[in-house]
Amino acid sequence: MWSRWLAPSYYDHPPMVGYLIRLGTLLFGDNLIGVRSMAILATIAASVLLYILTVVLFDDRRIGLIAVLWFSLTPRTVFFPW
User: Fold this and answer.
1) Is residue 49 part of a domain?
2) What is the pLDDT of residues 18-51, one digit of tens each?
3) CB atoms inside a 10 Å sphere around CB 50
4) Helix axes 61-73, 32-58, angle to 10 degrees
5) Are 67 and 50 in contact (CB under 8 A)?
């Protein structure tokens, strides 16, 4: 519902939630994939940035992969919507 009536803020979520859902539904349709797509892409982008940051800080690719593995194993509402 947030993406249908965009607002500068919402009661319990930041406004970017509505804008990302609107973008996803415009690109992929008004279905589950469209609603969740931008959150999935944001998770992928965060994983890449985490890997780069870890390699820069610790100069070890193995530690970067371990950091991304731990980040990926953390449950998020993108994959578990209950």
Assistant:
1) yes
2) 889 899 999 999 999 999 999 899 999 999 999 9
3) 16
4) 150
5) yes
